[in-house]
Amino acid sequence: MEMHGEERIAAPRQLVWEALNDPDVLRECIPGCQSLEKSSDTEMSATVKVKIGPVSAKFSGEVTLENINAPESYTISGEGKGGIAGFANGGADVKLVEEGAETVLSYEVKAQVGGKIAQLGSRLIDSTSKKLAGQFFTRFNEVVSEKAAQA
C-alpha cells in the first residue's frame, strides 16, 4: 500500500516539529491509540486498536525515527503485530516546509499488511488507512494550531 498527502498547519515549523516528536500529542491524535511511550530520542513503542471492516485488532509495535534533519524531515518506520489478525509494517517520509506563518507537512507512506487482515482485500485496507490518516492529520492540525494560537 502506498499513500501520500499534505496538510497545511497554522503554526511555525519548529512547533510542528516538536509536536511530531511529542508522545503526548501523538497519543492524543492517533486513532485508537491506547499507549505510546518514548523509549529514546529515536524510538517509541505503541499499542493501537483498529477496526478494518469486520476485523478488530490490537496492534503492539515499535516505531523508529531515522534520517532526522530537524526541524525539516525524518523517516518514521515501524512494525506492529496484531496476534491472529496479522501484522503491519512500513514507513513514512515526513517533510515540513515553512510558508509564511504556516507549515506544510507532506508525507509519503509505504506499508504492508499480512495475516487475516490482508485477506480483507486491498481496497478495504487502503480506504481504511486513508480514513485513519485523515483522522490523525485533522486532529494533529487542530492540536498544533491551538498550541500556536496560545503561544
UniProtKB/TrEMBL annotation:
Q: Which InterPro entries match?
A: CO_DH_gsu (IPR010419), START-like_dom_sf (IPR023393)
Q: Which Pfam families match?
A: COXG
Cross-referenced SUPFAM superfamilies: Bet v1-like
Q: Which CDD domains match?
A: CoxG (cd05018)
This protein is called Carbon monoxide dehydrogenase subunit G
Species name: Hoeflea phototrophica (strain DSM 17068 / NCIMB 14078 / DFL-43)
